Amino acid sequence: MEPKDLKIQAVKDAKCKLILDAANKVFCEKGIWNARMEDIAAVAGFSKPSLYNYYADKESIVISLAMREFEQLGEPISLVASQELPFIESIDKIYRIILKHLADKFSLFLDIDDYIKIAVANLNSENQSELKKQFFNAINKSKEAYSMIIKRGRKNGEIASPIPDDVLSQMLIVISHSVQMKWKMQGKADDVATATEQLIEFIKNGFSITTGKKQTTL
């Protein structure tokens, strides 16, 4: 990319960040369902028409914001996965990262889980299709981290479950997601440490994990 193009892209990226920061503020205050493009434009310091130069609609903003959240989580999760830690310790660290992030931004996550399903389904243009692809790539990075940890756990004799690795990876994601659903239904986040301990205890009983004691198998 030419220096001129790099400068143009840098300006665009900075403005997109400004818009997403504004959207995050508006979504937390009004909720995603009630937020309007003009609300986001006003907080970002844009006119509503100029906002459409960067995002086609609110769905695109929601997807981009969710993708940014996944990317912010992805780095520390990948770091944990790359370390030679016992299986349970790795999952414990990852769940604490995820649940703390969720608790810290709870007002945003109250709406985003339901809205994201509709938003993804409505991305139909060529540019939006690329955004959808990027979104799912961001999600898949967490699956890759879980897969790495599971493979290492099997190699080290920590996991005895006959369930295929790809299924175990999905189960680990669903298990942590269940906490998000519980918090959403009760309208508040619980203590992260306690929630993590409960999840880890469940995994120990269901995944056939050895932690210095006799190994059991599903």
Explain the overall architecture.
It contains 9 helices and no strands. It is mainly alpha-helical. The longest helix has 30 residues, at 126-155. Residues 213-218 have low confidence and may be disordered.
Which structural traits does this protein have?
218 residues; mainly alpha; 2 domains; 9 helices; 76% helix; 0% strand
Secondary structure blueprint with pairings:
Blueprint: H1 3-30, H2 37-44, H3 48-51, H4 58-82, H5 87-104, H6 106-121, H7 126-155, H8 165-186, H9 192-206
Helix pairs in contact: 1-2, 1-4, 4-5, 4-6, 4-7, 5-9, 7-8
Beta-strand level of the residues, as a percent range? under 5%
Radius of gyration: 20 Å
Number of helices: 9
Q: Got a strand count?
A: 0
Reading the helices and strands in chain order gives: HHHHHHHHH
Can I get a quick summary?
The chain has 2 domains: 55 residues, Arc Repressor Mutant, subunit A (Orthogonal Bundle); 161 residues, Tetracycline Repressor, domain 2, CATH 1.10.357.10.
